[in-house]
Amino acid sequence: MIISIVGMKPGEVGTVTDIQGGQEVTRRIQGMGIRIGKKIEKQGSHFWRGPQRVLIDSFKVAIGFGMAEKVFIKVERNGNK
Predict the structure, then answer these.
(1) pTM of the model
(2) Are 34 and 63 in contact (CB under 8 A)?
(3) What is the pLDDT of residues 5-58, one digit of tens each?
(4) Domain span including residue 33
(5) How far apart are CA 13 and CA 11, in angstroms?
(6) Cβ-proximal residues to 52 (8 Å cutoff; 6+ apart), any chain
(7) Main-chain phi, psi angles of 76, to 5 degrees
């Protein structure tokens, strides 16, 4: 199943498959270490439309809600691959 970081549940792990956005947004997201092919784990998020916390390699990163909506992850849920 492919969803954005926003749609991930805390503790879920997946692989980045796509970053949708302009050059500047893509550059900023990649500058945080979020790149296609990287495995990430969602640590949590703030209530409402707040920052999304993810673990990339051994680094914890908070990414804004708007940018997190542009990063798509392939996650496994309920046996779906």
Answers:
(1) 0.88
(2) yes
(3) 999 999 999 999 999 999 999 999 999 999 999 999 999 998 788 999 999 999
(4) 2-75
(5) 6
(6) 5, 6, 42, 44, 45, 62, 63, 64, 65, 68
(7) -105, 125
